[in-house]
Amino acid sequence: MRDLVKTYPAPRAKRLRRSAGRRTGRRSGAATPAATAGSDAPEAPPGPVRACDGVGLDIHAGEIFGLLGPNGAGKSTLVRQLTGLLRPDSGGIELFGHDLVRRPELAARLLAYLGQESTALDDLTVALAAETTARLRGLAAPAARAERDAVLDELGLAPLADRPLRRLSGGERRLACVAAALVGERPLLVLDEPTTAMDPVARRAVWAAIDRRRAERGATVLLVTHNVIEAETVLDRVAVLDRGRVIACDSPTGLKALVGGEVRVDLVWRDEPPLDVPKIAELARTARRTGRRWTLRLPEEAARAAVAAVTGGPAFAELDDFTLTTPSLEDVYLALGGRDEGLVKA
Ligand SMILES: Nc1ncnc2c1ncn2[C@@H]1O[C@H](COP(=O)(O)OP(=O)(O)OP(=O)(O)O)[C@@H](O)[C@H]1O
Ligand SMILES: [Mg+2]
Fold first, then answer.
1. Which residues, including other chains, have CB under 8 Å from residue 180's CB and lie 6 or more apart?
2. How far apart (Å, rounded) are the C-alpha atoms in residues 262 and 301?
3. Which residue puts its alpha carbon closest to atom 12 of ligand 1?
4. How many degrees, rounded to 5, is the angle at CA 93 between CA 90 and CA 99?
5. pTM given for the model
6. How many domains does the chain fold into?
7. β strands within 155-311, DSSP E
8. Integer Cα distance of 251 and 237 in angstroms
9. What does DSSP assign to residue 104?
10. Is residue 178 situated within a structural domain?
């Protein structure tokens, strides 16, 4: 995708044309409450939202590509353009050699899409949701049933096969939607927060299923997720999106190199930290405190010295726990200037 721009129109009260010459479409239903219609108010009402602001990304065939970023960064907007559900204002999308902006109807044949919120299947049973999706994707009845059984087994959904989706818990329903998205071989899977609301066992089953589609069938996967630390195990490359722009794009290892040799040291004190120990008093100056926990981000050498100071001297008796961790993708995101929340929901 190249230079993708997508602007949502301003809420109904007043439309600001900040971006000259850009067509904003005519949707109004989803508008958020606007500021007062009094047109000369000194505070401008909210204008159009530039949800994608010149996004260019190349996703290679056969890779699992992650899209990270805080709430409202534009991730869903970006993937919805790729699925043909939303038309970009400008820019290009090429999918397996096809121009998707000119022919959005092709998307349905080339990719499987799991939306962030999916209610279309709610009246069906889990088994029927998977089977119907497989049939819609062109499989003959016996093949569709075989795929249905395989995917329900793979995701541990067999015991729920005959329950309607609307009678499932949030996590179960989400898992059933993932199952439906995975049936019928599509060369590209676009999954918008597939593991939302799932327990750890279900989440692992999903990560494994995604990895298997790539390893065994050569599928390409575009994955939006807030579960960064878990997703890291399956992602080949990652783009970090913030306010509609790509602020970084690389392999998880490459991105982590951005935060250099910094290491995170977590110290948990039993009670009061021993500030009378000079080395501890020194650490206290840079530690971020949450209850009894101190978190420090230090270059490797300094981290080693800090650990030696807390474990080797009198402070050790006061220590409940300590951990030393190399940077995670979440640290990268924070170091890139992302806001301090939103990346991990669960
Ligand atoms: N239908 C819409 N009409 C107007 N503005 C919208 C609409 N959908 C999204 N937006 C705005 O566009 C921006 C990007 O939204 P988007 O849903 O793409 O974010 P996201 O990165 O998927 O966030 P989240 O992590 O919460 O799912 C936000 O500022 C949002 O408020
Ligand atoms: Mg979203």
1. 114, 121, 129, 130, 132, 133
2. 9
3. 51
4. 105
5. 0.80
6. 2
7. 188-192, 220-224, 237-242, 245-250, 262-269, 288-290, 293-299
8. 4
9. G
10. yes
Q: Is residue 334 part of a domain?
A: no
User: Is residue 329 helix, strand or coil?
Assistant: helix
User: Which residues does ligand 1 sit against, CB inside 6 Å?
Assistant: 8, 30, 49, 51, 69, 71-77, 116
Would you say residue 333 lies in a domain? no
Same domain (yes/no): 87, 224: yes
Q: How far out from the chain centre does Cα 108 lie?
A: 22
Are residues 213 and 312 located together in one domain of the fold?
no
Is there a contact between 67 and 191 (Cβ–Cβ < 8 Å)?
A: no
CB atoms < 10 A from the CB of 126, how many? 29
Q: How far is the CA of 275 from the centre of ligand 2 (A)?
A: 45
State both tokens at 54.
């010149």
pLDDT tens digits, 17-32: 554 444 444 444 334 4
Residue pLDDT, tens place only, 124-165? 999 999 999 999 999 999 999 999 999 999 999 999 999 999
Q: Ligand 1 pocket test: which of 5, 24, 76 has the largest number of ligand atoms within 8 Å of its C-beta?
A: 76
Dist. CA 199 → ligand 2 center (Å): 20
Ligand nearest to the CA of 338: 1
| Entry field: residues in the chain | 346
CATH code where residue 203 lies: 3.40.50.300
Structural domain span for residue 204: 54-255
